[in-house]
Amino acid sequence: MFRRYIDAVLRWFWLVVITTGVAAGIAYLSAERQPVTYTSRVQLLVGPATTSLNPTPNDLRAAAQLLEVYAVLPKMRPFLNEVIDELGLEDISAAQLENKISISTSSTTQLMTIRVEHSERPMATLIADTVAQKIVERSAGGGQVGDAYDQMRQQIERVEQSVERSESTLLELQQQRAAATTDAERETLDDQIDKERNFLSDTERLLISLYTEAQTTPNNRVQIVDPAIRATRVPRDVPTKTMLGAAAGLIIGVALILGLDYLDDTLKSEDALAQVAGVPVLGSIARYRNLHFIGAKRLIVTAQSASRAAQNYRKLGAKIVFLNSNQGFRSLLVGSPRGSQATSEIAANLAAVLGQLGRSVILVDADLRSSTVSKMFGMEKRPGLTDLFGEEVSLNECVVAVEDIDNLFVLPSGQSDNGGGLLASDSMLDLIQHLQSLADLIIIAAPPFQEQAEGIVLASRVNGAMVAAMYGQTRRREVREVMEDLYSLGAQVIGTVLMLSGKRSRRPRFGRRRSRPVAVETVGVPPLSQSEHARKGAG
After folding, report:
1. Burial, 490: exposed, middle or buried (Cβ in 10 Å; 0-12, 13-18, 19+)?
2. Cα distance between residue 444 and residue 329, in whole Å
3. Which residues does 15 contact at the CB level (< 8 Å), separation at least 6?
4. Mean pLDDT, residues 392-396 taken together
5. What is the pTM of this model?
6. Are the C-beta atoms of 323 and 279 separated by less than 8 Å?
7. CATH classification number, 35-48+57-136+229-235, choose in 3.30.70, 3.40.720, 3.40.50, 1.10.8
8. Res 288: pLDDT
9. pLDDT tier at 54 (50, 70, 90 boundaries)?
C-alpha cells in the first residue's frame, strides 16, 4: 500500500512541482505587496500586587478573573466608540479598530499586554496609550480611588518607620538603665522607658488598623507598568512566508495526488494486479507502438529482439514452458477484460518466443470482430476460423506457417460472416482438441471478456487461461468481475500479465541490419511435434 502511494507521487511529480511553485509565488507576491504597518505595545498590571502588601491565593485567583474581564473591554463596541471619539478617528469604524487591537494575558504574572497595529507610526502609539488609559479609568484604582490608594500606602510607610524608631529608642533606654549607677538615674530612665512603651503600643495598634483597612479595600486596581513607546515597523519576512507557501503547496500537491490515486481504480502495479486477480502475475510487458516503419506490422520479438519488451516476452515464454512441463496444458487462451490490441500483441509475441524455443505452436485468432492477430501477420483477407465451419475450406487451407519464425503457425479469424455463436459451440471444442494433436501448444487470442461473453465460454474449453491487463487503463473492478466469471465456468487461470504504457519504437541507426518484414506462406496442416510422432509410433 505504501509503495503504491510512493509510485503515485513519483508518477504525478510534475503536479507537486506546479502546486509548490504556484503556492510559493502567491505567498511571495502577497508578502511583497503587503502594506507597511507599525505596532505599539502597552503592559498593564491587574490585581492586588500594587495594593496589597500580602496578597492571598484568593486575591491572586481574583486577579486572574479580572484579567479576563479587562481583556474583553477593548473588544466591546461602546469602548471602541469612546476611543474613536476621543482621538477623532472619523475615517475608521469600531469593527476596523477592533481588528487593529490584540490582547494577551498572563495569569501567572497578572500582566495584560495591549498591541495595536496601524499604517501610521504615531497613530499606533496613540491608540495603544488611549486604550490603556480607558481601562485604568474603569478599574477600582482609577481616578480619586487611585489617589486614596497612594495616600494609604504612604501613611502605612510612615507608621512603619515610627514603629522602627520607637523600638530602637526603647532598646537604647533599656541599655542605659542597665548601666546606671545611682537610684535617681535609674528612676529617670524607668519613666522614659514606660512612656516609650506606651507610644510603641499605640503606634502598633495604628499600623494594624491601617493593614486591616488596606485588606478590606477593593483590589481590582489596574496600573500601567510599561507605557506605549515609539511604534516599531512590522517586518514582512518575505523569505519565511515564501517558504511557508511552498510547504503548503507541497502538502496540497501530495494530498491532491493521493486523492486522485484513491479515486483511480485502474491497475498500476503487479502487486495490485495479483491482489485483485488472486493468481500469480507472470510478468510485465513493456509495450511498443508503430512497429511498421519498414512495411507490414511486425512482432517486437523479431523486429527489436534486443529491446526491453522482447526480453520481457522471453521471460514470459520461459515461465510458460516451466508451467507447461508441470501442468501439461496443450491449449492456452489469452484474453483481457476490454480491448483486443494488448491481447493480440501478447498472444502473437508469446507464440513467436515459444516457436523460437523449439515448440510447435498454432496461434488462433479467435477475436472475430477485430481480427487483430490476422492483421498483424497480413492475413486479414485469408480464409480462416469462421470459414472452417461453413465447410467452404479445409483446415489445410486455413493454417499458415510464418516464414521468419520456425515452428509458428497461424489460424486467422477468416472471412466468413457465419461466426455468431461459433466460439461457444461444440464444434469449436472439437477443433481445439484436433489442433492440440497437431502441435505442442495452441495459443488462442480471445475476444474481450466483458465485450463478448463467448470469450469466457471459450476459456472453459481450453486447458489454461491467462488474463492480460493494461497499465493505467484496466480497472480493478473489471479484473475482479472477469475472474469471477472465469471461475464460475470452471476455467483454469494460470496467471496474469500486465501490459505497460506504450512507447514509440526508434528507427534503427544507419549501418544496422534491418529485420525483414514478416512473410507468410500457405502450407498444409502443421507437422506433428516430436512428442506426437513418438506417441503415434508407439501406438
Report:
1. exposed
2. 13
3. 253, 256, 257
4. 83
5. 0.54
6. no
7. 3.30.70
8. 64
9. low
Q: Say if CB 502 and CB 472 are below 8 A apart.
A: no
Query: What CATH number labels 280-504+517-524?
Result: 3.40.50.300
Tell whether the torsion through CA atoms of 260, 265, 269 and 274 is positive or negative. positive
Residue of 419, 413, 282, 262 whose CA lies nearest to 344: 413
Tell me which long-range contacts 91-98 makes (C-beta under 8 A, separation of at least 24). 97/127, 98/74
Give, as one character, the DSSP assignment of residue 448: P
pLDDT value, residue 496: 94
> Are residues 347 and 363 in contact, defined by beta-carbon separation less than 8 angstroms?
yes
Give the three-class secondary structure for 447: coil
Stated length of the chain:
539
User: 500: exposed, middle or buried (C-beta count within 10 Å: 0-12, 13-18, 19+)?
Assistant: middle
Q: Where does the pLDDT of residue 292 fall: very low under 50, low under 70, confident under 90, or very high at 90 and above?
A: very low
- Return the amino acid letter for 401: A
Element (H, E) at 466: strand 464-470
Contact 450, 483 (CB under 8 A): no
- Mean per-residue pLDDT for 392-401? 87
Amino acid 432: pLDDT: 92
Domain positions in the chain: 1-33+249-257, 35-48+57-136+229-235, 144-217, 280-504+517-524
The cell for 151 is 495616600
Alpha-helix residue ranges (DSSP H) falling in 357-436: 372-376, 385-388, 395-398, 426-436
Secondary structure letter of residue 231 according to DSSP: -
pLDDT class for 333, splitting at 50, 70, 90?
very high
Q: What is the pLDDT of residue 4?
A: 64
